Each structure stands twice: as structure tokens, then as C-alpha cells.
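User: Thanks for the earlier help. One more: Probable multidrug resistance ABC transporter ATP-binding/permease protein YheH. Can you show the sequence and predicted structure together?

Assistant: Of course, both are below.
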Amino acid sequence: MNSEKQPKLTANDQWVVLKRLLRYTTPHKGSIAIALILLTLTITGTIIGPLIIQRFIDNNLIPMNFPKQEVMVIAATYIGIQLFIVIVSYFQLIRFQDIALKIIQQMRIDVFSKVQGLGMTYFDQTPVGSIVSRVTNDTESIKDMFVSVIVTFLQAIFVLIGVYIALFSLDVKLTFISLLLLPLFLLIVSVYRHYSADFYQDIRERLSQLNAKIAESLSGMGMIQAFRQEERLELEFDDINEKHYRAGMRNIKFDGILLSPAIELLYTGAIIFTLGYFGFLSLETSVEVGVLYAFTTLLGRLFQPVQQVMQRLSIFQQALVSASRVFKLMDDTNMEPEQKVVQNIKVGEGKIEFRNVSFSYDGQTDILKNISFTANAGETVALVGHTGSGKSSIINLLMRFYEFERGEILVDGVSLKEYPPDELREKMGLVLQDPFMFYGDIASNIRLHNQEMPEEKVRGAAEFVSANEFIEKLPDKYSQRVTERGATFSSGQRQLIAFARTMATNPKILVLDEATANIDTETEIAIQASLEKMRKGRTTIAIAHRLSTIQDAELILVLHKGEIVERGTHQELLAQKGLYYMMYELQNSSAENAG
């Protein structure tokens, strides 16, 4: 199982992640330009307001000069600017939010598409909850960054530029002194960014572990309750939850020290210095009260976006950590096997040949060793053996779930790797011992949402495998609702629906992975009849759990520790009195004792 622990994000790593995130803004250049224009208008209105008040104080209030028309113009202008700011801010906010949501929408599509194309090895090693966490929680964190942080950063930059222009127009000397605030801002941001990345990475990892534990508990709830494991799972969940809480509290304490208090302290110092400066200046010359008001007000406007930026730095850091996790998934090279496609090649008769195939899941221990056999068109080859003997691995390679480098698998004399993926999926039908049912109805589970498949074909496939007998008795027949994983149907009913799903595409090759392993004896008789019809005229590779079900197979392969140790027909293998004979006798004696 893959560890969720990731290396620490350095400053360079964070910059690389940020640049990659910003590439998602490229398709929205026009909308961003409009949003920035609206933002500029909003900031301009915000800065002009205090300057109007300053003019009123110095030109009208202090000298007690109130020409009616002039005062009315000032009042109307100020009110008009405030209304303008409200209206433009609304459209600016909507525009930025729309861009952010479209970016995250595309990112989630990219991540989900990537997950669909990952190889089975990735899913073997990575907890389901961890993958879900990256597709949902991590992208949601990135959305928060685009929705609030980026807008706040841009607003802060525009405000800094606008405020300093206005300050220079009021007092050049004091403005130059106030520029010393900028390196102090940058110092606080740098310290926060350096330490907070570790905290947020820890939080995201703990949250991913929580999701993994929840997913494991929900998927195995029946087993948990059957073996009374509730208390153990609760303790394990509580332990992870406690670690998540501690990680969160460490971050909150750090934020509490460095964010708002630090900026408030700077702001207080700036106001004290400004008032002191004008106080000493008043001892030598007259000081315009309006200028003092405008300067202190604009300093407040300067600190407000900076404080918002600092408050959102936590979201920003969290988003960078989340983005690094998402991009790690998107950069994973463990993809499903690629086909070296030869155009126009089709599966014909369906003859299958394995030539000296060896395979290892981890690259160290061989699960299959020099596997060679031939399944002629229309024949049935059965695979038998104890657990771990390599039966499922042969099927996994035949279905191209895993890549193999040693040996060759041929279909109709052509390498399996040269067929188009769609051709293989259409001509090779797979039935598992625990068929997966999708949420929807029976018809959609048979056609697998292929809307081009007519209803007659769906019903024909169901009739072919005798699934129609129970489907027609249901209240809604083929429109009967299927809950998650088909929990409301029996094992036999789910299996028959899976048979119909497979036969709906009329495959040339049939792959059966212990299709009757979880079926009761009475249901097995009905399913065996369906299987015989399905196998007729098709090349069949079948993993057999019950040896009585494959006695008519043209070839039976007995596997042991990844090797074929016996091969032949049912009668030939019994005559050898080897491993197959022992397995057959054991099953017969078990059946007699049960009877």
C-alpha cells in the first residue's frame, strides 16, 4: 500500500506548483482581462473617496466655507462613487468566481480522466479513500484558492499601487518613509510560507488517512459487524482523527501568532508614526487636517488588503499542498498498458496462445513462470489450482490489465499488444465471480449506458442467459432500480445480469473468473445451463472453483506456484493421479460428507 507521506515542499517546489496551477487560467484570458478592468475601477473608486473627503475638509470644513452648489456636487460625487463601487464590485466578484469554478471544473475532469487511465498496479497499491480525497477534498482546497486567494492577492497589488500613488500626492517625504512597510510585509509572508507548508502537508495527509479509513469501513461493513470489529475500527479512526486534530491545532496556533496580530502591530506602529510625524510638523508649520485624515485613512486602506492576504495565506498554503498531491497523481506514469496498434486488425476466430509468458507484479517475484498453452477457436480451457497459483494473473494479462515483458500472448496469431483497445474490449467478454453492478436500472447495467444498443438487444441478451425469467417478475422489469453494487439482488441474479451484459456485445472470447464460486448449488444448475450456451462457439478461458463444472473442457491446466504442472482433459488428468486427482477426490469427499 502506498504511503501518503510526501517530501517537504521547498520554495522552488511551491513556485513550480503555482505556475502549473496558473496554466489553467490560459483559456480564460478574456474573462480575466475584463475582471481586472473591473477590479481597477473598484480600487480607483476606493482611493478617490478619501481624497474627496480631504478636499472637503481642507477647502470647506476648516474655513467654514459651504457654497451650496459646490457642497451638493461633492456630496453627489462621493455618493455616486460609493454606488459605483458596489455595482462594479458585484460584477467583478461574479466574474472572478465564474473563472475559478470553471478552472476547478476542468481540473476535476483532468484528475478523474487520469484516474480512469491508471493501471491496475496503482489501485493495488493505493487506498481508495486516498484517491477519493485527491479528486474531491484536494481539488476543493484548490478551488478555495482561486475563489478567494488569487482575487485577494490581485486586489492587494492594485491597492498597494493605487494607495502609494495617492500618498505621494499628499506627502512625498512621509510616503518614502512608509515604503519601509513593504519589506516588513514580505518578511512576515516569507516566514509564514516557510513554516506553514509543513503544517498543511501534515493536515492533508491526516485527512487523506481519515478518508481511507472511512472508505475501508463502509466497504467492509458487513464483515466488520459479522466479526465484531466495530470497537477496533473506532479506536483506529479515533487515533487518526486525534492526529488530524493535533495537526490542525498546531497550524491554528501558528496562524494566531503570525497573521492578524503581526499585521495589527504593524498598522498600529504606522498610525503612531504618522500622527507623530504630523505632530512634529505642526510645531514648525500649519498642517492640513484633511491631509492628515486622508493619509491615515489611506494607510488603513493599505493594511486592509494586506491583512486579508495574510488571513488567506493559510488557504494559499493549503491549496499548494493539495495541488502538489493532485499533480503527483496526474504525473503518475503507472498507466494502463499501451497498445502498439496495427490499423484495421480484428479478432477473427478467437484462437488464444500463450508462449513462455512470465510475469511479476512487483518486478522481483515471478507470479507466472513460462506459461505456454493454446486455446483453439471454440474450445474451452480451464484453469485450476490452489489460491495463489497464478490463475487470475493469466486472466489479468489476457485482459491487458497489466503489462508483461517476457513471453508473448497471441490472438489469432497476432500479438495481443497490436489490437486496438476497443476491439479487445468488444470481442473479449469478462465475467467475474463477484460481478459489479452500477447504480441505475437493469437495462443500463446490461447495455452499460451504450444508448446505441437497442432495447431488443438488451432483452435478447437477457433471454439468452435466462435472466429474463426473474427480470420479468420484477415490478418494473428492465427498469427495476439497481442500488449501489446491486445489493437488493441475490448473487445468482447479479451473476445472470453480468452474463447478459457480456453477451450483449456478442464476444468471440469468453473469460470466466470463477463465475459460479459464490452461487448456491440450486442456482448453479441454472447458471451452468446459461454458461454452456454462452461458451458454445466461443473460445473460453475459465477459472474453475468447482471441478465438476469444467469436466467437458477440451484442455484443463493445473497450476501450482505460477507453473503449469499438469495438463490434459478431465479423464486424462484423473488417470495421472496427480494434483488434479487429489483436488477432485477432496471435493467429492467433501460433497458426500455434506450430503
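User: Great, one quick takeaway?

Assistant: Residues 11-330 form a domain with the ABC transporter transmembrane region fold fold (CATH 1.20.1560.10).
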